[in-house]
Write a structure and sequence with these properties.
2 helices; 2 domains; three-stranded antiparallel sheet; alpha+beta; 3 strands; single chain
């Protein structure tokens, strides 16, 4: 996301480490969770998600994540309904779908 002066990237500390991993707002180390950063030729500037929660990009990303989780729950519910309706076992459904 662009701000007036920086291009932020949004990442998870489990997968991506940038620079010395200190939050530019609170000064604490970033060991886990989501954070954003921008980089210059000299350094990375990291910020905990909770230290910049007013950034609208977090709300957008959270909404996408919630929609994906809800979609998976709906799919699981639909598959379970099919199993009950047609008196099938999970293995039957896997065979029907050609996933075996």
């Amino acid at each position: 996301m662009w701000s007036e002066t920086h291009y932020y990237q949004y990442v998870d500390a489990r997968f991506i480490k940038t620079g010395i991993m200190l939050c530019t707002v609170c000064g604490k180390a970033i060991y886990e969770g989501e954070y954003r950063f921008y980089e210059t030729a000299e350094a990375y500037f990291n910020t905990h998600k909770h230290c910049c929660s007013d950034d609208p990009e977090w709300a957008r990303r959270d909404a996408i994540k919630e929609a994906a989780e809800q979609r998976l729950k709906n799919i699981e519910k639909d598959f379970n309904n099919i199993l009950v309706k047609y008196d099938l076992e999970e293995s039957d459904l896997i065979e029907i779908l050609g996933l075996d």
